[in-house]
Amino acid sequence: MVALAALIPILMLGVVLALGRYEELMLPEPKGDRTEPDALPVAVPSPVATSSPAPAGTPAPSP
Question: Taking the model in full, what pTM does it have?
Answer without folding.
Answer: 0.44
